[in-house]
Amino acid sequence: MYLAISWQELTGWLALADFLIVSLTLLSILSLKKESISATAWCMTVLFMNIFGVILYWTFGYQSLQRPLRRKKQHAEAFRKRVATNPVPAAVQAGFGDDLAQLAIRLGASPVVSGNRVDFYHEGATAFEAMLAAIRGAQKQVQIEFFIFRADESGTAFIDALVERLRAGVQVRFLYDAVGSWGLHRKLLKRLSEAGGKVSPFLTLLNPLRRRIQINLRNHRKILIVDDCIGFTGGFNIGDEYLGKHAFFGHWRDMFVRVEGPAVHWMQRVFLEDWDFATESHSPEVETNPTPEAKGDVPVQVAWSGPDQDIRTIRETYFAAIMRAEKRVWIATPYFVPDAGLLDALCLAARSGRDVRLLLPFRPDKWLPFLAGRFYWSEALAAGVKLYQYTRGFLHLKLMIVDDGWASVGSANFDNRSLLLNFEMTCLIQAKESVDNLETAFLHDLSQSIRVNAVEYAGRGFVGRMTENACRLMSPVL
Length: 478
Description:
Elements: H1 2-32, H2 36-49, H3 51-61, H4 67-83, H5 99-107, E1 113-121, H6 124-136, E2 141-146, H7 153-167, E3 171-177, H8 186-194, E4 198-202, E5 206-207, E6 212-213, E7 223-226, E8 230-234, E9 252-253, E10 256-260, H9 264-279, H10 285-288, E11 298-305, H11 313-324, E12 328-332, E13 336-337, H12 340-351, E14 355-361, H13 367-374, H14 377-383, E15 386-390, E16 394-395, E17 399-402, E18 406-410, E19 414-415, H15 416-421, E20 424-429, H16 432-446, E21 449-451, H17 454-458, H18 462-471
Helix pairs in contact: 1-2, 1-3, 2-3, 4-9, 5-11, 7-8, 11-12, 12-14, 13-18
């Protein structure tokens, strides 16, 4: 009898605890989620999945008031005040009256700066060799930041090059994302540290001192800065699969851009802001280093964004670019999970007669975002968007071309995770010759792709449609 009463009391207390936990979680969602779709999706997840939904939210969905995010935002503001005394000289500013460029500045991007040389790399082998050549030629400093850095043959080659430069007296700063580079061996990092390099993770996964497990808010940027005047960014991480050595994916289609000139000043500022936050240090050289001298004639604007910003710079710039397109919008992305506004912008552009093309993978590396993204294909196809799937291997590049003189090449995917949750960076390139180069590469990719037929796609099976519908409920964190 006593045991039966005890279990009844325990059940009552558990029910009360469940009610309180769910209620507090719903209040958190309603107070923190600004986007109605995200708030609705998370509320439904918690209501239908109960405690499991609560765990999902606090693990993947809660980011606005976390201590590290507040600290990152405060640190970024302090950093920008420090470096405000060393702006880019007016002599190297492009001075364009272009509305989109000026809007991007108001959204948080750098000024458009001319005098840059820009080179594109469409294959892993050429991109890796260019980066290694720049590192081996370094005379003063190498600053490197990647989301994924593997401890394989490719990663070891980079560590070897960095250690050699350290022994030659070159300074090295090595920043890696703690989740993306989860398998990076300590032995490899120890080689850098023992040679005199400075090494730091970005937002460690588990920090007992701060009582948190941090999975969201990842640093998805890929940045290499050499001697303050050469900068690389794009979609490649460091690992053998990016060289096409993965048995399942085979050929890996990606893109990296090498910038030499004044725009590197802004790329370096993004790195140093991340480095100062991760190491809780102060990098005085950003206040004293001269702006790199002109090396070409390509205007470049650097845009970066993350959950520490009130305005999602890259997302808003993409939205504005699509809405202002007069001729075309071509997008290549491995993950297409747009929010409602971006999807509406693409559909409106297509219905307005713009040439809107989406290039996506045929063979995905992650099934959940791939299936969630397919849910949005029907609406896009119905609006007249031309949708292609790359069949030669895996498509991983992040590219947007608008009209004849504007393009974006960087680390951001066309999904909520990149545009709302991750720390990203992209180069906005405003030169017809460079855009023509990217157009040629895009058309070549289309020749190795299949176009999705709207009628055939509409006739796909019931199970497939329901699976896509279920997966899209996770769109806010994909």
